[in-house]
Write a structure and sequence with these properties.
The complex is a heterodimer of chains A (112) and B (110). With 112 residues, chain A is mainly beta. Chain A contains no helices and 11 strands. Chain A has strands at residues 5-7, 10-13, 19-24, 31-37, 44-50, 53-56, 65-68, 75-79, 88-95, 102-103, 107-111. In chain A, strands 2, 4, 5, 6, 9, 10 and 11 form a 7-stranded mixed beta sheet that branches. A 4-stranded antiparallel beta sheet of chain A has the order 1-3-8-7, with no helix packed on it. Chain A starts with a strand and ends with a strand. Chain B is mostly beta strands and 110 residues long. Chain B is 0% helix and 57% strand. The N and C termini of chain B lie far apart (41 Å). Classes of the chains: A mainly beta (112), B mainly beta (110). Chains A and B meet through strand 5, strand 9 and strand 10 of A and strand 5, strand 9 and strand 10 of B.
Chain lengths: 112, 110
């Protein structure tokens, strides 16, 4: 069984530029999560989807961050414009019938 | 607000010993608690889940306890090996939402 796929693995951009991250969850998993992880910290939830519906986006900075999961499968997280403080690892996870979450390898974003 | 505390200092132990990691939480009554392992440059990997009505759970060399009165979970690795070296994340949860601690880095030396 393929795991959660994320791309790109690394991204370096200059501040004020846009950036997008892509995630393909495990097949059949209806719940998809986007997390942000700073160095030395645990993952922090940005948004949670149940199929194509965003059921928890309370921690998503909506002035610059947006996400979509149009067909209830893969998802895209976008930042526009990026700021220096957005440098972090962006993790995608999915879950199915159980409470266990399966994480992708993450995208490491560096904003210069 | 909800707070999850794990020992931020690294835990260094000798191979073969038992490693014990602590997770404390406040302002929260989770229905369950999960433990994840994270290696550098990788996403967290699920290890164990224990529910609020369970006192203890075991899986191979791993053991987790959950004390809802103390608001604490202990994570034990017996007969530790250098391959167990990683960061271990505690994540209390309710329904589909987890709140992760900062993690404790474990280093097992030969």
């Amino acid at each position: 069984e393929a795991g959660v796929v994320q791309s790109p693995r690394y991204k370096i951009i200059e501040k004020k530029q846009p950036v997008a991250f892509w995630c393909n969850p495990i097949s059949g998993h209806n719940t998809l999560y986007w997390y942000l992880q700073n160095l030395g910290q645990g993952p922090e939830l940005l948004i949670r989807y149940e199929n194509e519906e965003a059921v928890d986006d309370s921690q998503l900075p909506k002035d610059r961050f947006s996400a979509e999961r149009l067909k209830g499968v893969d998802s895209t997280l976008k930042i526009q414009p990026a700021e220096l403080g957005d440098s972090a690892v962006y993790l995608c996870a999915s879950s199915g019938a159980t409470d266990t979450q399966y994480f992708g390898p993450g995208t490491r974003l560096t904003v210069l | 607000s909800q707070k999850i505390e794990q020992n931020s200092e690294a835990l260094n132990i000798q191979e073969g010993k038992t490693a014990t990691l602590t997770c404390n939480y406040t302002n929260y009554s989770p229905a369950y608690l999960q433990w994840y392992r994270q290696d550098p440059g990788r996403g967290p990997v699920f290890l164990l889940l224990i529910r609020e009505n369970e006192k203890e759970k075991r899986k191979e060399r791993l053991k987790v306890t959950f004390d809802t009165t103390l608001k604490q979970s202990l994570f034990h690795i017996t007969a530790s090996q250098p391959a167990d070296s990683a960061t271990y994340l505690c994540a209390p949860g309710d329904t589909d939402k987890l709140i992760f601690g900062t993690g404790t880095r474990l280093q097992v030396f030969p």
